[in-house]
Specification:
The complex is a heterodimer of chains A (about 375) and B (about 550). With about 375 residues, chain A is an alpha+beta fold. Helices cover about 25% and strands about 30% of the residues of chain A. Chain A has a single domain, classed as Aminohydrolase, N-terminal nucleophile (Ntn) domain (Glutamine Phosphoribosylpyrophosphate, subunit 1, domain 1, 4-Layer Sandwich). In chain A, the strands form 3 sheets. A 6-stranded antiparallel sheet of chain A has the order 7-2-8-1-14-13, covered by helices on one side. In chain A, strands 9-10-11-12-15-16 form a 6-stranded antiparallel sheet, with helices on one face. Chain A has a 4-stranded antiparallel sheet with strand order 4-5-3-6, with helices on one face. In chain A, a hairpin with a 7-residue loop joins strand 15 and strand 16 (about 365-370). In chain A, helix 1 (about 15-25) packs antiparallel against helix 10 and helix 6 (about 235-250) crosses helix 7. The two termini of chain A are about 40 Å apart. With about 550 residues, chain B is an alpha/beta fold. Chain B has 2 domains: about 5-120; about 135-545, Aldolase class I (TIM Barrel). Chain B has 17 helices and 21 strands. Chain B starts with 20 loop residues before the first strand and ends with a strand. Classes of the chains: A alpha+beta (about 375), B alpha/beta (about 550).
């Protein structure tokens, strides 16, 4: 089973502290891998300029690295920083790792007049082109994310071991948000793309449990013909894509996510102040209803963090912390490990109707209930 | 050997052994009460005098060697119109277990002769293909165990309903909500629907029993069951009652009953559940409806606006329509307009290779609410044997093709596909229905199954009974003859409807819980099903399991 940990703090911290929390939750997983997402980056040896896209991935061969360099150059990207991980390859389980990529680029000059939406689209297409190039060359290039202020690392092995192998304990990279997941998808063959967190256009989610409604959801998302809705090596990838669809495509507030993945029952909607709108929304998005058991933990580009679960609540998760610093984990011991000096009595485990939202100011977390008034403007 | 002329033989002379059902009568148990002959709907048996020789040993030459006794016994008639239909009514009423029909495995001579007067064979009922059909062979094999625990069918809450109606894409829904434009009507209904059986085909008692049961399911049990009328309208009191909301009104090519419906619109207390436009039927594709004269009683004649006792064959097509585009535009929009765009309107077609093109026309029409496809195993009140046996398309691959076509367009949530034709024909109604739902149907219609489950219809896939067409239904389900339909108590039918739907609801949960599904109907969850027939698996794009 997956173990999940997310920490968000106003002051950047080392991802290694989150890996230690994973260690605290070790009883629950098989140590088959690690997925990390860092946001709100702070490098000790580089001053990161906001807005510059960061590429995360793995070049499995020297040839792949050359192709990557050539592709980025052809696309007009200018490399500003290339983070050299202090890798101890003897501690890396997999043999085919040539270089872990964490590079900061400057956007091409030709994008200067692009709208924000166009830039976001182009960034996604670039990541997809790199992924495709890798897949066409026997999987020698893996691209996890290409987005401003986001780094992703995925590797096979025990989380702490992977952290040590990549030198994450040296404090050279810190971040204000860190998501960690401790398992490769061992249900099937190991595939780095099947490892949580999943990422699309700034949105990252990770999940534990099994998504039993995966196929109908995947079929529907695939039918959108949106270039980023591909992959699905893991059934949990759809949670990231649904969040993307709701917030980016439908442009609905974050609260709508819960209404779409686990809508209220008809009788409950009849009592709801915006029941009429929400019922129609439920019908229109019926194929996106999840069936759990899942806890979904995610982050948005503005560093908002969220936690929510399926309607049967068979995978609980806990949030705890203090103003300026919050931790979400699938196990309470994970929260303890990340923020030991907190008032535990204020920890919270959301119920089936709740979405926990930690806004970017991180002063307090919001417990939003589906039974509350829905914050949508005109439509509702 | 005697002269042939002394034997009463014609080309069509048959013996009981040539008929599909042979009466087995035990004279030693018979009390000659006559109940069997009175109850037989086709007069297949008669009480008759018979003579038996009583041989005895006589030693004197003045007396004859034998004497005779005369007695009354039961004999089976061999005329085609009186052939035994195997309904078993005689067995049901016999106080002494002295009589029963037995299926005859050597009955093929009958088939060659069943064209008296130049009439091709007709019957009501079903296709008569015994044994498990493809739907019966589908198994649910994605069992939740450790990575996701199975649910508790008895204690968890399940959302089992489906949607009937045009569902907008999320983008379009939000746009229209924002601008205040029309949102198409959508009904939240139970996915097992009582399929179209007309008020003329069914007896008044059967119809009333079904409606009572449906109302109870909705109003007491909270199972939102709906039933479809079939062609021929609806009794006026129902049209003006609050029960109309549980009824899908059908308009077919004869437009029977629509005078009454249109006239009742101003007095309707609520809208009907939906309007079904029948273009085709699975049991007799390319044929119109057929209500034979036997069943056109005074009441039926009044509802349909026709004289009593005449055959009512509906044309095979809607005469006012020229093409599918026109049909969709004209009829769907006209019917929508009649209820001011508050009622879903959808077409019913027979399973066909051309179903996908119909579907794609519907996709492009903003008023089309759904598509109902009726497969070859569908039943009917009356049809030519050749239509029922050999015309049509099996439902499974037809629905699957259409669903995958919608998926490719990303529109599988917008036009729900409903499936019919053989659902539950061997009694496995929930398994059949859920199989079709996982292949992509949003719900299923069932007709024969409801007649069997709710009213004890005697029909079976072994050519039993099947006289719905001539109004002689021994149970009073498909007859307009009061002597027959008074055999059926509407309250008892209602009770059976309720029992049936409660059982289906439980079985749905017992299927969904192990799959880990409870929050939405698993439409298109094709990863959950498998079949041990490799070519069927390939054709349906599901797992082959062995």
């Amino acid at each position: 089973m997956c173990r999940l940990a997310l920490k968000t703090a106003s002051e950047p911290f080392s991802p290694f502290s989150v890996l230690q929390a994973m260690e605290a939750m070790q009883e629950g997983y098989d140590g088959s891998g690690l997925g990390l997402l860092l946001r709100g980056l702070h490098f000790t040896d580089y001053s990161y300029k906001a807005g510059d896209p960061v590429l995360s991935g793995i070049a499995h061969t020297e040839g792949a690295l050359h192709r990557l360099n050539a592709m980025m150059q052809d696309l007009g990207f200018e490399q500003k920083y290339d983070h050299e991980f202090e890798v101890d390859f003897s501690k890396v389980e997999a043999a085919d790792r040539f270089k872990y990529i964490l590079r900061v680029y400057k956007k091409p000059k030709s994008w200067e007049n692009f709208s924000e939406e166009e830039v976001e689209h182009e960034l996604m297409l670039t990541r997809l082109a790199l992924r495709k190039d890798g897949e066409e060359n026997g999987g020698d290039l893996t691209a996890f994310s290409f987005w401003p202020d986001v780094v992703m690392i995925k590797e096979v092995g025990w989380p702490l071991g992977v952290g040590e192998a990549l030198g994450l304990n040296t404090n050279r990279i810190n971040s204000r948000v860190c998501m960690a997941q401790g398992r490769q998808n061992t249900n099937w063959g190991i595939n780095l793309y099947a490892c949580h967190p999943f990422f699309i256009q700034g949105i990252g989610t990770m999940t534990n449990g099994e998504n039993t409604a995966f196929i109908p959801i995947k079929d529907w998302l695939t039918g959108r013909n949106f270039p980023g809705y591909i992959g699905y090596q893991s059934d949990s990838e759809v949670f990231a894509h649904i969040l993307h669809y709701v917030t980016k495509q439908l442009k609905l507030p974050l609260e709508a996510y819960k209404h779409i993945i686990t809508p209220l029952k008809t009788a409950e909607l009849l009592e709801h102040p915006q029941g009429d709108f929400l019922r129609g929304l439920r019908d229109a998005c019926r194929r996106l209803i999840i069936d759990g058991p899942n806890a979904v933990i995610g982050t948005l580009p503005d560093e908002t963090c969220l936690l929510t679960m399926d309607a049967k609540k068979l995978r609980p998760a806990t949030i705890g912390g203090k103003p300026g610093e919050w931790a979400i984990a699938s196990e309470m011991c994970g929260v303890d490990a990340m923020i030991p000096d907190r008032d535990q009595s204020l920890d919270y485990q959301p119920m089936r109707q709740h979405t926990i939202i930690v806004p970017p100011d991180r002063q307090e977390f919001k417990i939003w209930s589906q039974f509350d008034q829905f914050p949508l403007p005109q439509a509702a | 050997m005697v002269s042939i002329r002394s034997i009463p033989a014609t080309p069509s002379s048959l013996t009981p052994g040539d008929l599909p059902w042979v009466i087995e009568h035990r004279e030693d148990r018979c009390t000659l009460c006559g109940r069997c002959t009175a109850v037989c709907p086709v007069n297949a048996i008669k009480l008759t005098y018979m003579r038996q020789r009583m041989p005895k040993l006589v030693l004197t030459s003045t007396e004859r060697g034998s004497s005779f006794r005369t007695f009354v016994g039961i004999r089976q008639k061999t005329e085609i119109k009186n052939r035994c239909i195997g309904c078993g009514s005689c067995e049901m009423v016999c106080p002494n277990a002295a009589i029963k029909p037995q299926p005859n495995t050597m009955s093929d001579r009958f088939k060659f002769q069943n064209t008296a007067g130049g009439e091709a064979e007709k019957r009501g009922g079903r296709r008569n293909v015994p044994g498990p059909n493809l739907l019966d062979k589908i198994i649910f094999n994605r069992i939740s165990m450790l990575t996701d625990p199975a649910l508790d069918a008895g204690r968890h809450e399940f959302y089992l309903n489906t949607l009937l109606g045009r569902v907008l894409s999320p983008e379009e829904y939000i746009r229209r909500k924002t601008t205040g434009e029309w949102i198409p009507p959508v009904r939240e209904i139970f996915p097992f629907i009582i399929g179209s059986m007309s008020f003329g085909a069914l007896s008044p008692n059967m119809w009333l029993g079904l409606l009572q049961g449906v109302a109870y399911c909705n109003e007491v049990l909270g199972i939102p069951v709906v039933m479809a009328t079939g062609e021929g309208g609806c009794p006026p009191w129902v049209l003006k009652s609050p029960f109309l909301k549980y009824i899908i009104l059908q308009i077919a090519s004869g437009y029977f009953g629509w005078d009454e419906i249109i006239r009742a619109i101003p007095e309707m207390q609520c809208d009907p559940a939906a309007i079904e436009i029948k273009y085709g039927q699975g049991a007799k594709p390319g044929d119109g409806g057929l209500l034979m004269w036997f069943k056109v009683s005074k009441l039926i004649a009044r509802l349909r606006g026709v004289p009593e006792g005449v055959d009512l064959p509906s044309p095979p097509v809607h005469q006012t329509l020229y093409s599918i585009e026109e049909s969709v535009m004209k009829m769907i929009q006209s019917m929508s307009m009649a209820w001011n765009f508050r009622v879903p309107v959808y077409p019913k077609i027979s399973g066909s290779n051309s179903a996908k093109s119909v579907l794609n026309n519907l996709v492009r029409n903003p008023y089309a609410s759904a598509l109902l496809i009726d497969g070859i195993d569908g039943g009917t009140g009356a049809a030519y044997n050749v239509s029922m046996n050999n015309m049509g398309h099996p439902i499974a691959s037809n629905v699957r093709d259409c669903y995958l076509d919608l998926c490719a367009q990303g529109k599988q949530n917008e036009i729900p596909i409903f499936a019919a034709g053989g659902v539950g024909k061997n009694g496995n109604v929930t398994q059949n229905g859920m199989g079709l739902i996982m292949l992509g149907a949003s719900g299923v219609h069932m007709g024969k199954f409801m007649m069997q489950a709710a009213a004890g219809c005697l029909g079976s896939e072994s050519n039993r009974c099947n006289v719905c067409n001539v109004g002689l239904c021994p149970k009073g389900i498909t007859s307009q003859n009061p002597k027959l339909y008074r055999r059926l108590d509407p309250d008892q039918v209602a009770q059976r409807v309720v029992d049936t739907f409660m059982a289906i609801r439980t079985e749905m949960k017992k299927i969904m819980a192990p799959l880990g599904r409870s929050q939405s109907l698993p439409i298109g969850m094709s990863d959950a099903i498998g079949i041990s027939d490799e070519s069927a698996a390939k054709r349906l794009n599901i797992k082959y399991v062995c």
